[in-house]
């Protein structure tokens, strides 16, 4: 096509070129960076927790009164829950993945190591915990009923066996089988021995910033064979038979309230709700960014339509002259499409620089990652297409300018 | 070269029909320099638009170089226009964003000549109108007469057989007008057929033949050397009844 | 003359409805997006207690692990809470004008009225100074005094809603309330008190609702009430509640009121001396690093305005720029299309300044129209934000300054966008245009 004359014609109307080019450049910068953020959020939100989320819910009981016996409450409640129709299994818990609250500890491999830089989320369960969470055991064995003990929140001692996640094992003993290995939570106390390894169980705070550089840090979890009441509060995880979770939440709430009146039954939340809550701000950001992208592309497209229409109107005579000189409709159409392609390309070149400028700012101010070039290319292709689509209408109108316009005296 | 038989052109707007041309017949032979005169609104420009394939006509026949124009599609008309016809407008119609070289280049681009061929033609024709030295200038940097010369160069660049000029000197002072007329006569001498629309009798007098149009009809014409042209086995008379 | 320009502006808007619609919508969408995020940003970052925010200081001391800074992201930042030992020592020293230690507790409320079921309630165990420190408004009664702090009095201050629930909104001062099986006597009831940002405990949720009740700090400690909020330890503690109180675990927030910069400097050196003393006892293994940020600084340190909100703000203003560039283009197109009219006006004697005013007013008219629609979009946008983030209820709301700012911004923006096209329009020569028309 006739790039050079188009380009030289454009250079004669620099303002228009600058306006559309700037708009395209800004649009590219925003769209590619936003797409990158969106993709990261989607990746985050899509991470599996490792547990059965579809059929589980947690529920808490807060006792009051001097006569309230927490150990008793555990035994009674677990018996009640496990006996209810529709309940596949139930277990005493402290927390669940994504709930944002829980207990963490630092791990040391020796008694002399000073800096315990591996932060681990603690899950306190009984022998039914593995099954209730729906975790997959990939090595070693589960706890047995006689290994489960009661723990006071203020206690400083630890049981001598634990289960850990595969990711944690890999972090502590790369390439080795973690079963049988030992580590310390308190260097002045005996070590703990790993008896089992589960495939995956993410932390209650999966959005934890990843400082250690280990991208699996959010999977560093450990299971301890203990029941830990928080004051007079006990908490349970219930796994319903498939499809019955909604009806069971109500039934369990009512049943627990009825079995013991000196307590408050509360916080019945399904894992589906907990997941939604955990990723709520990610989801919000996602929706806002998508809305911005859509609005931005529409505005840019409308801007191109507006400017192109204006040009067509302004150049009616010129188009007529070209037609009189033998240009076909196709020639005129292609002229405007090519012109738009040239402007868009100039804008995109500037936009590419701007895109990495914005990315650099995000990297410095918000420790974002470097933008993969793929997003830039994707944004460019999208804007090329958008430009051609937007200009198609005015260009078609231009091609319909009758050649007789040329002889009409001005 | 150009032959119109009983051509009519009707503009319809809302309820009113305007007959811009009615029963219009004319025959211009190869190599002629014909001036079409007439008062404003007589249909001169409509005739020129139809002659230059810029507009459709409502009835009658029209041949260019023996080819019937009716029934040709838009693209075919564009091509015919591009190859056989050169245009000179009253308002020059140079593209202000393009320099002289690129302006003359416009029809050649649509013709699909090679780059070298185009360059040769542009330089040749700009030289022919005496503006070879100003190829990189923009139209706004030239006088009216110079602009019209560029328009002529552009019209000639594709070596058309027919040159259509619409009041080519209408926007020029007499000195410049004379120069442009001399250039047109020179071009005609070299073999290009020219049809010039004008309302200036002095200018018209310089043409070989005058056709006078009033109310969309040819009312008067110079004596034509060969009235009858045997073509397509039919006699065509370029006269009114 | 101005009204004539206005009239011309509106007339011009009607002349190319599609182009006008594009421009007005362009401005409106840009304004809507930027004002939505600006409102959230503005309210989130706004001073919750402007009349004394510079006198309220949060107490930070670096009692953390010698091998590892408390905050990996910002190594110079001391822990965001204090230990029980240190809090008690500072309260007892009483060097500030007012001082309050506090933590979040969760207790069941057992109403006397058997018809109301016991319910879980979030409260705050704190010092008597709390109420004067944060200027909490009282409906009935008062807070408790320092003497009652000392003697672990069984007294409670109820929030308005709790009083509504338990006593039907009556003056309940002197009445009894049962919390976690212990009886308290009501000494005060607050008026509606809902700071948009819960600035006094940013550790446990910047946007959580304020507490439903307040009890003396020493009372909650005596009853061995664990913190319902954040608790962090770097060292293992001794067994039991006593061991916990003696530990290096941080779980308390501490605020002091200091009248002026001199008092602040004095308090700072008091803290430095305190830490130096403690170092002799083998505590505070890290370099001395005490901070006394005021309310606004503390909000900044805690990123009350989240990164996402900041990114959204930047994004929406970039978006507004795109909308403006778009409007410049369209205005240029519009004004250039009117070259004939402008030439005619010039020929009829309009001066350049007059034409300039006319077109600036026309841009302003577009701005006002865009601003009004933009206001509607902002309102919708904030509604959407409240739907997307459940805890933004208090911050994603329009107030009058923001409404005026919205209209103002759109007028300024559109006039800015109109400057270049107007200048271009004024360059049109009168004669040249008439000749070709």
From TrEMBL, chain A:
Its main location: membrane. The chain crosses the membrane at residues 284-312, 332-353, 373-392. Residues 291-403 form the ABC3 transporter permease C-terminal domain. It is found in: Cell membrane. It comes from the Bacteria. It is a multi-pass membrane protein. Keywords: Cell membrane, Membrane, Transmembrane, Transmembrane helix. One of its GO terms (cellular component) is plasma membrane. Belongs to the ABC-4 integral membrane protein family. GO terms for molecular function: transmembrane transporter activity. It comes from Tahibacter soli. The keyword Cytoplasm does not apply. Residues 34-250 form the MacB-like periplasmic core domain. It holds the Pfam family FtsX. This is ABC transporter permease. The lineage of its organism: Bacteria, Pseudomonadati, Pseudomonadota, Gammaproteobacteria, Lysobacterales.
UniProtKB/TrEMBL annotation, chain B:
Residues 2-241 form the ABC transporter domain. GO terms for cellular component: plasma membrane; transmembrane transporter complex. GO terms for molecular function: ATP binding; ATP hydrolysis activity; transmembrane transporter activity. Keywords: ATP-binding, Nucleotide-binding, Transport. It comes from the Bacteria. PROSITE patterns: ABC_TRANSPORTER_1, ABC_TRANSPORTER_2. The keyword Glycoprotein does not apply. Belongs to the ABC transporter superfamily. Macrolide exporter (TC 3.A.1.122) family. PANTHER family: ABC TRANSPORTER ATP-BINDING PROTEIN YTRE, IMPORT ATP-BINDING PROTEIN. This is ABC transporter ATP-binding protein. The lineage of its organism: Bacteria, Pseudomonadati, Pseudomonadota, Gammaproteobacteria, Lysobacterales.
TrEMBL record, chain C:
It is found in: Cell membrane. Keywords: Cell membrane, Membrane, Transmembrane, Transmembrane helix. One of its GO terms (cellular component) is plasma membrane. Residues 315-429 form the ABC3 transporter permease C-terminal domain. InterPro entries: ABC3_permease_C (IPR003838), MacB_PCD (IPR025857), Macrolide_Exporter_MacB (IPR050250). It is a multi-pass membrane protein. One of its GO terms (molecular function) is transmembrane transporter activity. Residues 20-261 form the MacB-like periplasmic core domain. It comes from the Bacteria. The chain crosses the membrane at residues 21-44, 313-335, 356-380, 400-420. PANTHER family: ABC-TYPE MACROLIDE FAMILY EXPORT SYSTEM PERMEASE COMPONENT 2, MEMBRANE COMPONENT OF TRANSPORTER-RELATED. This is ABC transporter permease. It comes from Tahibacter soli. The lineage of its organism: Bacteria, Pseudomonadati, Pseudomonadota, Gammaproteobacteria, Lysobacterales.
């Amino acid at each position: 096509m006739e790039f050079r004359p188009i380009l030289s014609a454009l250079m004669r109307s620099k303002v228009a070129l600058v306006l559309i080019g700037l708009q395209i450049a800004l649009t590219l910068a925003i769209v590619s960076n936003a797409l990158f953020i969106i993709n990261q959020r989607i990746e985050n939100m899509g991470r599996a927790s490792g547990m059965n989320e579809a059929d589980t819910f947690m529920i808490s009981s807060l006792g009051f009164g001097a006569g309230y016996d927490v150990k008793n409450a555990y035994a009674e409640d677990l018996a009640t829950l496990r006996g209810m129709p529709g309940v596949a299994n139930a277990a005493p818990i402290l927390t669940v993945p994504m709930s944002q609250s829980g207990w963490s500890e630092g791990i040391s491999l020796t008694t002399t190591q000073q800096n315990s830089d591996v932060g681990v989320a603690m899950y306190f369960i009984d022998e039914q915990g593995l099954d209730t969470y729906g975790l997959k055991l990939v090595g070693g064995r589960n706890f047995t009923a006689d290994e489960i003990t009661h723990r006071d929140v203020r206690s400083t001692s630890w049981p001598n066996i634990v289960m850990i996640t595969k990711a944690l094992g890999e972090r502590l003993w790369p390439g080795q089988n973690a079963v049988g290995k030992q580590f310390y939570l308190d260097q002045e106390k005996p070590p703990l021995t790993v008896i089992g390894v589960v495939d995956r169980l993410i932390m209650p705070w999966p959005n934890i910033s990843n400082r250690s550089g280990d991208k699996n840090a959010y999977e560093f979890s450990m299971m301890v064979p203990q029941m830990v009441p928080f004051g007079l509060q006990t908490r349970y995880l219930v796994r319903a038979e498939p499809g019955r979770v909604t009806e069971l939440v109500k039934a369990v709430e009512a049943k627990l309230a009825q079995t013991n009146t000196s307590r408050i039954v509360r916080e019945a939340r399904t894992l589906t709700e907990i997941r939604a809550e955990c990723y709520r701000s990610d989801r919000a950001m996602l929706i806002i960014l998508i809305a911005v992208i859509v609005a931005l592309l529409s505005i840019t497209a409308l801007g191109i339509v507006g400017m192109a229409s204006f040009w067509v109107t302004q150049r009616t005579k010129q188009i007529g002259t070209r037609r009189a000189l033998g240009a076909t409709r196709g020639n005129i159409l292609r002229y405007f499409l090519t012109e738009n392609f040239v402007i868009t390309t100039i804008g995109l070149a500037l936009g590419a620089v701007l895109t990495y400028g914005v990315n650099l700012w995000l990297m410095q101010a918000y420790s974002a990652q470097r933008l993969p070039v793929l997003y830039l290319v994707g944004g460019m292709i999208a804007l090329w297409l958008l430009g051609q689509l937007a200009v198609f209408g005015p260009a078609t109108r231009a091609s319909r300018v009758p050649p007789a316009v040329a002889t009409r005296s001005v | 070269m150009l032959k119109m038989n009983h051509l009519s052109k009707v503009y319809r707007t809302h309820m009113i029909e305007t007959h811009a041309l009615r029963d219009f017949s004319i025959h211009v032979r190869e190599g002629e320099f014909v001036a079409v005169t007439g008062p404003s609104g007589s249909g001169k420009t409509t005739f020129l638009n139809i002659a230059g394939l810029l507009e459709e006509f409502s009835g009658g026949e029209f041949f260019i170089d023996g080819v019937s124009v009716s029934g040709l599609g838009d693209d075919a008309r564009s091509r015919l226009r591009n190859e056989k016809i050169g245009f000179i407008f009253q308002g020059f119609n140079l593209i202000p964003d393009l320099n002289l070289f690129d302006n003359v280049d416009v029809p050649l681009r649509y013709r699909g000549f090679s780059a070298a061929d185009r360059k040769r033609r542009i330089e040749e024709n700009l030289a022919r109108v005496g503006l070879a030295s100003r190829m990189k200038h923009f139209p706004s940097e030239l006088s009216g007469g110079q602009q019209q010369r560029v328009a002529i160069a552009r019209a000639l660049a594709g070596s058309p057989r027919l040159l259509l000029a619409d009041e080519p000197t209408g926007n020029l002072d007499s000195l410049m007008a004379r120069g442009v007329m001399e250039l047109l006569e020179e071009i005609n001498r070299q073999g290009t057929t020219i049809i010039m629309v004008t309302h200036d009798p002095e200018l018209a007098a310089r043409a070989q033949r005058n056709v006078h149009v009033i109310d969309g009809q040819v009312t008067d014409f110079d004596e034509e050397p060969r009235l009858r042209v045997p073509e397509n086995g039919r006699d065509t008379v370029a006269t009114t009844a | 003359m101005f009204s004539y320009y206005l009239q011309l502006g509106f007339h011009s808007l009607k002349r190319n409805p599609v182009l006008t619609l594009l421009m007005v919508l362009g401005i409106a969408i840009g304004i809507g997006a930027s004002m939505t995020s600006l409102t959230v940003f503005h309210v989130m970052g706004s001073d919750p207690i402007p009349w004394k925010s510079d006198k309220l200081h949060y107490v930070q001391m670096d009692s953390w692990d010698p091998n590892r800074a408390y905050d990996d992201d910002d190594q110079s930042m001391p822990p965001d809470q204090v230990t029980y030992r240190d809090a008690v020592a500072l309260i007892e020293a009483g060097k500030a004008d007012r001082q309050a230690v506090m933590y979040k507790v969760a207790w069941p409320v057992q109403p006397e009225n058997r018809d109301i079921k016991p319910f879980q309630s979030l409260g705050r165990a704190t010092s008597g100074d709390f109420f004067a420190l944060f200027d909490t408004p009282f409906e009935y009664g008062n807070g408790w005094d320092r003497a009652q702090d000392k003697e672990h009095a069984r007294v409670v201050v109820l929030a308005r809603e709790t009083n509504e629930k338990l006593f039907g909104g009556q003056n309940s001062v002197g009445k009894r309330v049962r919390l976690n099986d212990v009886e308290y006597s009501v000494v005060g009831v607050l008026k509606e008190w809902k700071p948009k940002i819960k600035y006094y405990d940013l550790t446990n949720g910047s946007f959580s609702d304020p507490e439903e009740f307040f009890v003396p700090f020493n009372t909650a400690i005596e009853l061995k009430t664990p913190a319902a909020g954040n608790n962090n330890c770097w060292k293992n503690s001794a067994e039991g509640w006593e061991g916990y109180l003696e530990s290096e675990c941080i779980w308390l927030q501490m605020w002091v009121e200091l009248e002026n910069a001199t008092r602040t400097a004095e308090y700072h050196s008091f803290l430095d001396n305190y830490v130096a003393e403690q170092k002799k006892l083998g505590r505070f293994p890290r370099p001395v690093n005490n901070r006394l940020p005021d309310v606004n600084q503390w909000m900044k340190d805690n990123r009350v305005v989240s990164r996402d909100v900041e990114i959204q703000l930047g994004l929406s203003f970039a978006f507004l720029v795109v909308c403006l560039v778009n409007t410049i283009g369209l205005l240029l197109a519009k004004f250039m299309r009117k070259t004939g009219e402008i030439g005619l006006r010039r020929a009829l004697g309009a001066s350049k300044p007059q034409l300039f005013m006319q077109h600036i007013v026309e841009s302003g008219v577009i701005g006002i129209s865009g601003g009004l629609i933009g206001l509607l979009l902002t309102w919708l946008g904030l509604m959407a934000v409240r739907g997307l983030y459940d805890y933004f209820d208090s911050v994603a709301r329009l107030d009058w300054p923001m409404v005026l700012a919205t209209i103002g911004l759109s007028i300024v923006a559109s006039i800015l966008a109109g400057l270049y096209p107007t200048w271009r329009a004024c360059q049109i020569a009168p004669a040249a245009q008439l000749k070709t028309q």
